[in-house]
Amino acid sequence: MKIKKYVGQTAHEAMLKLKMELGPDAVVLNTKTIRPKGLFRYFKKPLVEITAAFEDKDLLNKNTISKYENKLNSINEELVELRNLVMNISVNKNEDEFFSPILKKFYNTIVNNGVDPEIAIKLFKKMNSKINLEEKDTDTIEKIVRFNLAECLGSPGPIIVNEEQKVIFFIGPTGVGKTTTLAKIAANFVLKNKYDIGLITSDTYRIAAVEQLKIYSDILQLPLEIAYNKEEMIKGIDHFQNKDIILVDTAGRNHNDLGQVEELKEILNTVKKKEVFLLVSATTDYKVLESVIDKYNFLDEYKLIITKIDEAENYGNILNIKHIANKELSYFTTGQNVPDDIQIIDVENIVKKLIEENNND
Fold it and tell me: Phi/psi zone of residue 114: left (φ > 0), alpha (ψ -120 to 50 degrees), beta?
């Protein structure tokens, strides 16, 4: 048994402090009025002190936390159920307005494969308004759906090397795999195309990131410059003026930190002619995707690289990301292996995955 005292302006305040820390099972031993400490204590309002006894604090806190966690989890589950119920009512209402049974089947399939319901509705409404789907068989409608999905995804825009030097920036939030993706692209260029390449990293916030790229540069026998600020970035690009390609790794940015976004703008503005690739993880929640992509709307032009496809449950987020950003897709990555786990976006294969029925449902 342990003893602890709590002080408040009122008995209610002191008791609230007690209950917040010790829970409802603590035993109140004494309540009394005390004078505040200090030179002017006689001019201040008296305080209330409550003395309480309680069992082992660690055990008590653990039980209390567990109880509140269980209650919170229960509330969260109820909120999720309520949200899904409201969404289903809304979606079903929209479906009934224009979906034929065959079209509804394809709608359900792509939503089950991760496409956001609102995006799917927009897609099918547009399809339905342009094409007369009445009296068409399932195979014909499937071809129409495939074509429209492919049209939404668009043609891929990989890096194309020409006579003019390319400075290529890889940007994106923390943890999406920028350094590894840059290394994969660099390795493929070196091994397959024999281009002369220079590497620059401005990801000096993480020592591990610099070391990781240094290891890749040593293996690939590529020169690496480290840029701690805008001036060193300019020097690094000038140092590589005779290279075919300069690949620039940037620090992962917290998309909610406006200061970090401003730093990124400064880095990107060091070069007039550049190509920018925004990396986004396929495992990112839809609402977070909207927030992330919105923070990069200061860029007029960039292309998308979707990472961690191997960790995602399905391919739906590829279409979601494309729809939100309305930018060209370029590559997606499927693991950590350099240089193998990267490929140019295969639109036909993505469409196949989107309309593939999930037998696990």
Answer: left
